[in-house]
């Protein structure tokens, strides 16, 4: 159905800061990819980003279908609930999917995407950064091979909306609406699930501003906690994930270049497209992340 992996033509949907800083440079530099074009909701932004990387700009609804027709795969740098229906449309057009996290913020949206990918038989990868970063991916695999984990504690405190914060992503409407639960929650779950097993129980409580505290029970019998926020004071921001069990404690290492991590996600999509083998971090995994986060969100709304 598609060209050999080394000839894969990949287009990019999205022309904002994330696309500009990560996806576009990674696609342009990847030796096994032809960066086939950029589509953006703002035509001028798509044109500017495409010009930087000497590729084709697409815009408008007709431009979406034209990009799909010119590509073997598409990558997404769009808000999740804009991404999901376009990803389903891309799958129906025969394009492999390199999705951003979360796939959607509704279970229905994520399920629609997963079902579209399954019907079309296309490969999919969800870019959860820690599953592809050179420093953290092998660490996660190593801990997943270890038995006897008792509990885990995760803290992901961003300062996008704190006084003095200067993140280029602070202007993102969906992040402001959905907060840390949906923006950084997928990252934490992408580490906890492969190590401790699927989540069987979710308890959630509100903290300051958008902060969410989760207590999770896993199918292995282990439990975990997670504190998620985009509004922490600048000096309090940071990330830590610690696993505790029979062998003592293991701490998630620091990670670096997002471009390199995205290149690894591209490699994973190429391999899945070539072999037909689903990747562990595919759209079905993305659907499961949405299901867990939606359950947590419902509990937060219930608690008021």
What this model shows, in words?
The protein is α/β, with parallel strands linked by helices and 304 residues long. It folds into two domains: 5-128 and 258-281, NAD(P)-binding Rossmann-like Domain (Rossmann fold, 3-Layer(aba) Sandwich); 137-254, Dihydrodipicolinate Reductase, domain 2, CATH 3.30.360.10. It is built from ten helices and twelve strands. It has helices at residues 17-29, 43-52, 60-69, 80-92, 107-120, 137-144, 173-183, 185-196, 258-275, 283-303, and strands at residues 8-13, 33-40, 57-59, 73-76, 96-100, 124-127, 149-157, 199-206, 212-218, 223-229, 238-245, 248-251. Strands 3-2-1-4-5-6 form a six-stranded parallel beta sheet, sandwiched between helices. Helix 5 packs antiparallel against helix 10 and helix 8 (185-196) packs across helix 10. It is globular, with a radius of gyration of 19 Å.
């Amino acid at each position: 159905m598609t060209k050999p992996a080394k000839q894969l033509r990949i287009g990019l949907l999205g022309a904002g800061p994330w696309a500009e800083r990560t996806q576009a440079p990674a696609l342009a530099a990847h030796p096994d990819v032809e960066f086939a074009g950029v589509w953006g909701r703002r035509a001028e932004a798509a044109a500017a980003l495409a010009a930087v990387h000497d590729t084709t700009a697409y815009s408008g609804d007709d431009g979406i279908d034209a990009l799909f027709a010119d590509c073997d795969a598409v990558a997404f740098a769009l808000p999740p609930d804009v991404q999901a229906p376009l990803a389903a449309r891309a799958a129906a057009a025969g394009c492999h999917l390199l999705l951003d996290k979360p796939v959607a913020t509704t279970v229905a949206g994520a399920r629609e995407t997963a079902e579209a990918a399954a019907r079309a038989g296309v490969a999919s990868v969800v870019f959860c950064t820690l599953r592809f970063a050179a420093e953290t991916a092998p660490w996660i695999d190593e801990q997943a091979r270890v038995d006897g984990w008792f509990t885990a504690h995760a803290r992901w405190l961003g300062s996008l909306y704190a006084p003095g914060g200067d993140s280029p992503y602070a202007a993102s409407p969906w992040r402001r609406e959905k907060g840390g639960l949906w923006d950084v929650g997928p990252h934490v779950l992408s580490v906890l699930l492969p190590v401790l097993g699927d989540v069987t129980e979710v308890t959630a409580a509100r903290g300051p501003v958008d902060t969410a505290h989760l207590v999770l029970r896993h199918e292995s019998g282990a439990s975990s906690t997670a504190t998620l926020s985009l509004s922490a004071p600048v000096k309090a921001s940071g990330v830590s994930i610690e696993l505790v069990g029979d062998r003592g404690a293991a701490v998630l290492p620091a990670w670096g270049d997002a471009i390199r991590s995205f290149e690894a996600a591209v490699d994973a999509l190429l391999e899945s497209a070539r072999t037909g083998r689903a990747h562990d971090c595919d759209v079905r995994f993305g659907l499961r992340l949405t299901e867990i986060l939606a359950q947590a969100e419902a509990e937060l709304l219930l608690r008021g």
